[in-house]
Design brief:
With 144 residues, the chain is α+β, with helices and mostly antiparallel strands. Helix content is 16%, strand content 41%. The longest helix has 19 residues.
């Protein structure tokens, strides 16, 4: 018969067990946490400016600016601007686009009627991304 002698076990205090649990949770949390993404240098910001800011019936220009990316990213972008009246049944106004560089485009519009319009600027980048800006405009009657 073989007898085994019990070895004395070290006593773990409640405080030590709590501290070990906290450290284990912190290590697990750090291991599972998402690492911050590297800065996305390819992000593009689309901004617009209407001239005149409060147009009357007739011509106006919406300038579309692209920023936040390299000229190579923006160089082959296509820009479209369409103006829609906010009530149904009206023909949209399609702008003529004139590029002023790889990141600035002028959209010449002709407002045919006073009232509320919504200008939609759509940019398609060469990598397939699509950006859109919606610009609400109140067109004033033509001044005599």
């Amino acid at each position: 018969m073989l007898l085994r002698m019990a070895q004395p076990q070290p006593r773990v205090t409640r405080l030590a067990a709590f501290a070990a649990g906290v450290l284990a949770a912190a290590a697990l949390s750090a291991a599972c946490a998402r690492q911050p993404a590297a800065e996305d240098t390819s992000s593009v910001l689309l901004t617009t400016r209407l001239m005149p800011p409060q147009p009357a019936v007739g011509p106006a220009t919406l300038t579309v600016n692209l920023s936040g990316a390299t000229a190579a990213t923006l160089g082959r972008a296509t820009v479209q601007v369409v103006g829609h009246m906010t009530h149904p049944g009206m023909t949209p106004a399609v702008a003529t686009i004139t590029p002023r560089g790889p990141d600035v485009y002028d959209a010449a519009l002709d407002f045919t009627m006073a009232g509320d319009w919504l200008l939609i600027a759509t940019v398609r980048l060469h990598d397939g991304r699509r950006l859109e800006a919606r610009v609400p405009v109140t067109v004033q009657p033509r001044q005599p």
